[in-house]
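User: I'm putting together a teaching handout on how sequence relates to shape, and I'd like one worked example. Could you take P-type Ca(2+) transporter from Chlamydomonas leiostraca, show the sequence you're using, and then write out its predicted structure as tokens right after it?

Assistant: Happy to. First the sequence, then the structure tokens directly below it.
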Amino acid sequence: MGAPDLLVTVEAKDAAISPDELVRINKDKDLQALRSAGGAQGLIHAANLGTDLHHGLPVERVEANRARFGANVFPGRPPPSFLAGFLDAIQDPMIVILLIVAIITIIVGAAVPEQRAHNGWSEGIAVLVTALVVVFIAAGQDYNKELQFQKLNKLKDLIDIKVIRGGKQCVVPNTELVVGDIVLLDTGDKIVADGLCVLNQGLVVDEASLTGESDPIKKNTEDDPWCRSGTTVNEGAGRILLVAVGPESEWGRTMALVSEAGDDMTPLQEQLKDLATKISKFGVTVAVVCFLALFIKWLVVNKGWNNDKVNDNGPLQFLLYAITITVVSIPEGLPLAVTLTLAYSMKKMMKDNNFVRVLSACETMGGATAICSDKTGTLTENRMTVVEGWFAGRSYGALPAPSDLPDSALTLLAHNCALNSKAFLVDLETGVIDFVGNRTECALLVLLRKMGLDYVKVRESREADLVKLYGFTSARKMASVLVRDPASAGGLRLYNKGAAEWVLKRCVSWVDGSGAIQPMSEEKLAEFTEEVTAMAKRGLRCICLTYRDYEETDASRPEDFFENPDQVDNGLIAYAIVGIKDPVRQEVPDAVATCQRAGITVRMVTGDNIHTARHIARECGLFDEAQGHVALEGPVFRTMPAAELMDMLPRLRVLARSSPEDKLTLVRLLKGQGEVVAVTGDGTNDAPALKESDVGLAMGIAGTEVAKEAADIIILDDNF
């Protein structure tokens, strides 16, 4: 499988499909040309991509493909010029008024002898210099701000992508991708270059950003393998072979047709600009009225026009009064001061690892009165470790040795943790293990290592047996994978893992210490439930690992049976329950206390067990029964009468086993009470709550690209 001799080594000139032809095939979604080339595998040879569907692109081939097919970068706007900013600033209505006033003052001061004798023109020069100074400062600030925003936008557009290179799974920035790369996709991922689906594990893609169609599209390797840049993965997982990057991709062509709009002003900037305009109009009106009143009085006193008294406290003097009123009334520095302040705030927040995507969030966050925070990775370290559990009929206060478990249990453990997961571990040179992907799944992979089991070998040996992947969702609280397995009685085996109390309800059997399967009696279920509750009260996340076998062909089964995970994940056999420790971040209790002193109520919204959530909330200092604080579970929260819920809302501190819909409902209820709500989120399904909140904060490390796109601020280190 994926032997090195599959790699193509011929020269580019010998390729049957040129880079331009490859672009055309991708652009037109020419399925006939793809099939004529022999599908994805044939295309690799015909276009001389030099890659391998199993081992990916050799590291030494990356630069050659980048030179031949282009880099995955999009041409941005040209750098702004100071002159353009100067010309734009000088057209501001307030500046125009000041310039006109200055010119009139200079002319009058120089032309009229009485004014010239007193250097009357100097006032006009002063006004002119003031206006030009404001223009220069505004142009300089806009120039610097534009350069800063371009740098920040590059950071905003930088996404870590999971790929296979040189036979190893690794993470590279999206700008480093090249044609021929094999990209690993999972639920919530953003597709950043055009590719062909070469491994489909229930891959469903949302193409609304390109096509406007709201219905997600199911991908497959035969009839619809085209995966477009700019789209996101709604469900499932898969692998794609990149065939177009940068300007040649679908998103690149779209961006080339759309000129990027400038940065919008924040609400405060708009309000202050409007206020400054109103003050200026009022000042000009007062100046005109004063001039007319004095001029009319002068006409009455002098019984008409008198040339001898024009310069003697006459119309020219009245004009200078009006000019003075106009100059004094124009607050030309007010919007500029706000821009400088917000730019400073952005820089300061960036130093604190908070990347501001929407400038107005700097204003709004300062007025927040409620924070709805995730638990995992935000309040906790997100460095999960399996510390105890129940394995094959016996409880262990610490991890058991491999020799303590029957071989059948070890095999089940290895296959479930390795195949029912898209996460992987990267061993850094420092000796630290870097977690890539879901942190719970990474903890299970570390468990395999401690048991002497190699998850990489399991995946490589069983990759061809994968049938369908059922990804984790907040509603199901579990994930499963269906594989062909010779050890299965019927040919198909389902490996399932998820929240222990949810999974146990679907179990009909359990594996004892000898490896024998026993029926799940009510007494045994109660015993397991007690075990889970005890671990949860110690602050552990409890994951139950199960399996079951299916007949590959069954006439009594509906044709679409395996399309519905709720049908598939039933009749399960439990063989392990693990307790995963995720310590509270050291700085969180002080941060929560600081928020509370500032009058901000911090609430935890989590999908974890209520006992685990309470324990962690107490450690964070945001939950105290003595103060009347309340913890609710999602199912109770969503069925509670409105009047009772509104009465309890001020005391609610923990919402456990919650769904994204529960979080969205909570945000709306709090906003309805007049609260300014900030929400943290990391999952694809958190996007509605992030959008609904006054300030949405997405996790930079654990957050999916969908969550980041919906957020106003990205917390780069996931730290509360």
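A couple of points you could highlight for students: Confidence is low (pLDDT under 50) at residues 1-14. The radius of gyration is 33 Å.
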